[in-house]
Design goal:
This is DNA-3-methyladenine glycosylase 2 family protein. It comes from Curtobacterium citreum. This protein is α+β, with helices and mostly antiparallel strands and 320 residues long. The N and C termini lie far apart (48 Å).
Length: 320
């Protein structure tokens, strides 16, 4: 029995004053695990846990912290949330699970690999968190370092400065800091986390303009205007803007230009050989408007590019 199964999960039910429930009926296939996977920052992410058949998220919402339990059911997705942000989390759960992600107009263009990948993943949707700073801060941490380094820093800082998730959440589930709380983390703690001054300074610049960043959500599902707004902050480039908008806005056309792995993955999947950023964009051009959908389909297909070539050097700045 999972934590969620131990309590009532019917729409509108409540086991305590802070709990809010709903049942999302998407009207089509939605794979909860693959749709929410971009939110997971490594297998030990304190803000993302899987217990049995339930995905647990610790969210920092505009109205406060929330624990969210999401379960896959036959044709429906029960969602329960606890904490001051519970009502907000439940209200926005359908968008989190891909409502509004319109695949109309997406055509595999006769490409056999993509046709098979789409057939294999009918429930893949692009999520939209409706929280910009919460997606931007970890993206900044991931700039120009290995995932292992970035995820280690994320774990360290959440455990030091996050908030224990409310409600009957799994042990160790932690809500990330608010923008103000990120801003108050001292420089030596960023150093202990392995985040050098360049990245921590970028986080500081971003959280100082948090309200303006959140207002970009009114501009729709991303695009060039949102990207330009994000990149107006020194230290944020195309890659960070794309990694953020993919999650916060549900941008379907923001491939991660500048990524160490993505261009080669796209190249090998679509042509059988590696390409650079320009080559990736050229390959993805027939799917303009849906380019991130193509990348997600490739990533979720199980395809792996050949494992050879130089690896990104792990640099530890904590001893400097």
């Amino acid at each position: 029995m999972t934590l969620l199964d131990s309590a009532s999960s019917s729409a509108g039910a409540s086991v305590d004053a802070s709990r809010v429930d709903t049942v999302y009926r998407p009207g089509g296939p939605v794979d909860v695990t693959s749709t929410l996977r971009p939110l997971q920052r490594g297998s030990g992410d304190p803000a993302y846990k899987v217990v049995g058949s339930v995905v647990w998220l610790a969210l920092r919402t505009p109205t406060g912290p929330a624990s969210v339990a999401i379960r896959q059911a036959d044709g429906t997705i029960p969602v329960s949330a606890w904490g001051d942000g519970a009502a907000w989390a439940v209200e926005h759960a359908p968008e989190l699970l891909g409502r509004g992600d319109d695949w109309d107009g997406f055509d595999v263009c006769g490409h056999a690999f993509l046709a098979a990948a789409r057939h294999k993943q009918p429930g893949l949707r692009l999520l939209r968190t409706n929280t910009v700073v919460a997606m931007l801060v970890p993206a900044i941490m991931e700039q120009k370092v290995t995932s292992r380094q970035a995820w280690g820093a994320w774990r360290y800082l959440l455990r030091r400065y996050g908030t224990a998730a409310p409600g009957p959440a799994p042990d160790g589930l932690i809500v990330p800091p608010t923008a103000d709380e990120w801003a108050r983390i001292p420089s030596w703690e960023w150093h202990k986390a392995g985040i050098e001054p360049g990245r921590s300074a970028t986080v500081m610049r971003a959280v100082r303009v948090a309200p303006a960043l959140e207002r970009t959500l009114t501009l729709g599902r991303g695009g060039s205007v949102v990207s330009a707004r994000l990149q107006s902050i020194p230290g944020i480039g195309k890659w960070t803007a794309a990694e953020t908008a993919q999650r916060s806005h549900g941008d379907p056309d923001s491939p991660s230009v500048g990524d160490f792995h993505v261009p080669a993955l796209v190249g090998w999947a679509l042509t059988g050989g590696p390409v650079d950023d320009d080559g990736m964009l050229e390959l993805l051009e027939p799917w303009r408007g849906h380019r991130e959908r193509v990348v997600r389909l490739i990533g979720g297909s199980g395809f792996r590019k050949p494992a050879f070539g130089p690896r990104l050097t792990i640099q530890d700045h904590r001893g400097h």
